[in-house]
Specification:
Layout: H1 2-16, H2 31-39, H3 54-57, H4 73-83, E1 89-92, H5 99-106, E2 110-115, H6 118-128, H7 133-152, H8 155-162, H9 174-179, H10 183-197, H11 202-219, H12 240-261, H13 264-267, H14 270-273, E3 274-278, E4 291-296, H15 306-309, H16 311-316, H17 323-326, H18 347-357, H19 361-384, E5 385-395, E6 398-400, E7 403-405, H20 407-417, E8 420-429, E9 438-439, E10 446-447, E11 454-455, E12 459-467
Parallel strand pairs: 1-2, 1-4, 2-3, 4-5
Antiparallel strand pairs: 5-12, 6-7, 8-12, 9-10, 9-11
Helix pairs in contact: 2-20, 4-5, 6-11, 7-8, 7-10, 7-12, 10-11, 11-12, 18-19, 19-20
The structure holds S-adenosylmethionine.
Length: about 475
Amino acid sequence: MALFEELIKKYDSLSLNTKNTDIIEFNMNTQIEISQMFENLSEDRSWSFEELTRKDTSYATHGFHKYPAKFIPQLARRCIEEYTKEEDVVCDPFMGCGTTLVEALVSGRKAIGTDINAVAWLITNTKSIPINPDKLNKEVERILNDIEIYLLSSKKQVQKTLSLRTNPIILENERINYWFPNENTREELGIILGRINEIKNKNVKNFCLCAFSNILKGSSIWLMKSIKPTRDLNKKPSTPYKAFSRQIKMMLMGNKELYDLMPEQVRNNLKEHFFAKKQDARSLPCKPNSVSLIITSPPYVTSYEYADLHQLTALWLEYAKDVAQFREGFIGSIHKKEFNHIGIKSELAKQEIEQLNKKSKREAETVRNYFVEMQQCFEEMHRVLKPKGKACIVIGNTELRKVPILNAEVFVEIMLNIGFKIHKIVKRIIPSKILPQTRDSKTGRFTSNHKADRLAYAYEYIIMMEKI
Ligand SMILES: C[S@@+](CC[C@H](N)C(=O)[O-])C[C@H]1O[C@@H](n2cnc3c(N)ncnc32)[C@H](O)[C@@H]1O
């Protein structure tokens, strides 16, 4: 035990000295030692990036689209610079809106990402592929012009003059009517989408679809600050064309910034540097021992329901026939129907599940399934990483029915048991300006601020593990 305490001391001082990238060798096999290690961790404020403004964190394409629980680009960049060199492969199995991938490309690395969410794929693709700014400006001008003429003219005239370029989309879907009760709004969105669908160049088309996707919540009666799908019957939705035009003009500037920032050898050979796929993180599109660094923030259990939150895009772009179908495959979802019965390689996880089981069998089973599925993800990460390659997992702990769900400790235990060793663990305070969510202490679920009785995730961890 004395040796272990020595290591913790050494480890604490090292984590404060952020320039020091020494590998610390731990030899811990028990959950008690892991728990003690976390208890003794001190905060490392250099990973909080408190000085950054919203402008800093949304530079280039990073502000293209809202995305729940995205991490800041500076965090990903620091890991990339510390652990890789140019042309190394960086992978994010839960890429979300592509923060890691954009940062990898801008720093001259190769970027691979997966996400089960088709909306994540659309956003990541748009944010990672710079388009020649002059060509894009001209094309967008034409598109906006066409839509504007269509909207200004009477429909009869328009069908004569613009029938080749604008074919409004009319979707007969009761969920669309539910979120967009105003017929004019639906029509205007249909006209914009119809014009986008006529675009031949797939990168320009995705660029416009991404802009379209980001205006949907504002154009609907979705209660804006809610992270649960809730209707706001008093809301005055924004006018789709105005919102689309504003959004796409902002994106034009971001695209130019990315175009100028991306090293030429990456931009000119993007196919060899960038690969993003709508795919399950348990089956990565990578050869064994090929990846130098994984940076990712996994989904949490029963918190954000990504499929529900992105249902407006999924409905308009017809990614799924309904929300139930769209939810398939999401790890951590409360809506899981089939449970996985593989054993969990973590004693801590088993203790937490046992405690939760006394309060809610259903939730205990959901948490068990979550850890099993995350274990499968870690096994897949181990397969694709090069020996000595690092996996940096950004994760916070949580609570369900007052039972602590110590994700970070459980992940470390599982990863130690499948062939990783600890490189470094950082405890980072999340600056309050980017901590909007609160949790209900009874259910542990996210809730709106006014109903909240405590803050969630005041701090989180970056678990940096190394493949043995
Ligand atoms: C915390 S978010 C990642 C955010 C990301 N770091 C960013 O900056 O945008 C977790 C992601 O995991 C994805 N996800 C959930 N289940 C998945 C699965 N089985 N395979 C791949 N991705 C999954 C969700 O769609 C979500 O985008």
